[in-house]
């Protein structure tokens, strides 16, 4: 695990993240899993803290964010309690990302099916054979290499 740090930025945001690379005299911070700390108050004025992705849809550990060191007012190493909360938030984010990816894949499959049905309907109305027949005819001259999968070359 890389250094987990907390930053207060000049724009007022407070973030916690993994620092992948610390800036040299001229560089930027390279960060991942950047979460924004937000504070709200309930009806009794008790503070409630929450962690959310700092940038929308930047929620993969492979996605890095650079932040200019000129935009950092303060930095600290968070306490163990906050690190535990951060790690739990990252885990929940990972689960949500997997669910979103699975949903998007299902949606893509449904859209492909609807598109094929629409194309087939239009082709039938025009007196043509359905699109799957044309697709098979177009690939009569394709040779599959014995690569262990069905990759077309």
Keywords:
single chain, alpha+beta, 6-stranded antiparallel β-sheet, 2 helices, 6 strands
Summarize the structure in words.
With about 150 residues, this protein is α+β, with helices and mostly antiparallel strands. It has a domain at about 5-100: SH3 type barrels. It is built from two helices and six strands. The protein has helices at about 80-125, 130-140, and strands at about 5-10, 15-20, 30-40, 45-55, 65-70, 70-75. Strands 1, 2, 3, 4, 5 and 6 form a six-stranded antiparallel beta sheet that branches. Strand 3 (about 30-40) and strand 4 form a beta hairpin. The longest helix is centred in the C-terminal third of the chain and has 46 residues, at about 80-125. About 10% of the residues are buried.
């Amino acid at each position: 695990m890389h250094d987990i740090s907390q930053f207060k930025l000049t724009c007022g945001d407070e973030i916690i993240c993994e620092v992948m690379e610390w800036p040299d005299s001229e560089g930027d911070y390279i960060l991942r899993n950047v979460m924004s700390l937000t504070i709200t108050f309930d009806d009794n004025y008790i503070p409630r803290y929450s962690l959310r992705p700092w940038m929308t849809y930047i929620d993969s550990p492979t996605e890095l964010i650079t932040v200019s060191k000129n935009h950092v007012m303060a930095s600290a190493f968070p306490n163990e309690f906050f690190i535990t909360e951060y790690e739990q938030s990252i885990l929940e984010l990972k689960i949500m990302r997997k669910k979103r990816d699975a949903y998007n894949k299902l949606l893509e499959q449904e859209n492909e099916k609807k598109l094929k049905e629409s194309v087939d309907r239009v082709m039938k109305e025009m007196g043509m054979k359905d699109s799957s027949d044309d697709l098979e005819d177009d690939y009569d001259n394709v040779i599959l290499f014995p690569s262990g999968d069905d990759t077309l070359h």
